[in-house]
Design goal:
The chain contains 14 helices and 12 strands. The chain is an alpha+beta fold and about 375 residues long. It has 3 domains: about 90 residues, no CATH class; about 80 residues, no CATH class; about 130 residues, no CATH class. Helix 9 packs parallel to helix 11. The longest helix is centred in the middle third of the chain and has 21 residues.
Length: about 375
């Protein structure tokens, strides 16, 4: 028998060396840069904000915000990440704002006044209108024809360092800032935003935030007449409802667990799945009605944290028509469409949580 030539192959050894400068892990940034160019993001923000320095050179507000957003899309969470992005030579050729460093970004942010920060919303409103104009006709009609939902929300972002400005400890003992945004839910686009601390109540500025969001909404979307604000129980406040009423838009706000509400729930029969009540708190619009739905909740879904308010987010049914047009017969209620993008607080007692009984989820609307 002839001998097989070659024998066992030698395993190739991996070699570690300097990274190739012509390669980048952020090749998708080319699409982001193209999108920013087509929408004119930097120019729109600069035109709205105005100059942030006496000399017209270097980066402006539009480049600052676009550069920060691009770094976040590349996976960075802190200003120091701008340095890592800057070290990526190939990636900088694709970035919408090449060369932005962390020290430059921090210095520019300090120069921008409170009024200029608010003006950013005007610039982004121009960008949103351009986005809608570039969409295919069918998609643009679906977005602007309604329903158009303004979805306010706040979240806590934990930070570190004793010298951080504009932050405070929240009820969980975390030092946080509290971004408070109003988004166009269907387009997934932020229309207006504020930045508070861990002790700021989002309800205090909710009405002003709603008005600014409506101003930033494209005219085509507002003209459809199907604009509504949807908020969870954290926004249970009469001034938000009155602001929506004054702007002639529908509103739906999750109801808090207050004593009159519990008495009302006790009066509803066990066989009722949906109920509409005429309950209206003081200083709320007179057309306010209470929409009540029952749902079954697993006790495991309730937080065991003693600081928890024993409330859980559940999907709600989106009611296209204002609740004021509904009849007690529930005909329109039964035809409501499901909307999984918006949640409201479940009204839940500690006893019900232990027993896993059927509980109510409550939506206030007008």
């Amino acid at each position: 028998m002839a001998r097989i030539v070659g024998g066992k192959r030698k395993r190739r050894q991996a070699r570690i060396g300097a990274p190739d400068a012509v390669l980048t892990p952020n090749a998708g940034m080319a699409a982001i840069s193209e999108l920013c160019d087509r929408l004119g993001v930097i120019g729109a923000i600069d035109a709205a904000v105005g100059p942030v320095k006496q000399r017209n050179r270097g980066f402006g507000a539009g480049e600052l915000l676009t550069g920060l957003a691009a770094a976040q899309l590349a996976g960075e969470d802190f200003l120091a990440g701008l340095g890592r992005q800057r070290a990526d030579a190939a990636g900088q050729q694709l970035a919408p704002v090449p060369g932005l460093s962390s020290t430059t970004a921090a210095g520019l942010a300090r120069r921008i006044t409170a009024g200029q920060w608010k003006a950013v919303e005007t610039g982004l409103a121009v960008v949103t209108a351009r986005m809608v104009a570039l969409l295919p006709a069918a998609r643009a009609a679906a977005l602007t024809g309604g329903p158009v939902t303004i979805d306010p929300g706040a979240t806590d972002v934990e930070v570190y360092g004793r010298k951080k400005r504009g932050v405070a400890y929240n009820h969980q003992g975390q030092r946080v800032g509290r971004p408070h945004v109003a988004a166009w839910a269907e387009a997934e686009t932020v229309l207006a935003a504020d930045l508070g601390s861990g002790t700021d109540d989002a309800r205090a500025t909710a009405a002003d935030l709603l008005r600014r969001a409506l101003e930033a909404l494209p005219a085509r979307a507002r003209a459809g007449g199907r604009v509504a604000v949807r908020a969870d129980a954290g926004y249970f406040a009469g001034h938000l409802a009155r602001a929506a009423h004054d702007e002639r838009i529908s509103f739906a706000i999750g109801a808090r667990r207050i004593a009159p509400l519990w008495r009302l729930l006790d009066s509803i029969g066990d066989d009722a799945e949906v109920a509409v009540a005429g309950y209206c708190p003081d200083w709320w619009p007179a057309t306010t009605r209470l929409l009540i739905r029952r749902a079954r909740l697993d006790p495991a879904q309730v937080s065991a944290d003693p600081r928890s308010r024993l409330a859980y987010e559940l999907p709600v049914d989106f009611v296209e028509e204002p609740v004021t047009s509904m009849q007690i017969g529930n005909q329109e209620v039964e035809e409501a469409q499901a909307d999984d993008h918006v949640g409201i607080k479940t009204v839940l007692s500690k006893t019900q949580a232990r027993k896993g009984v059927r509980v109510y989820r409550v939506l206030r609307a007008a």
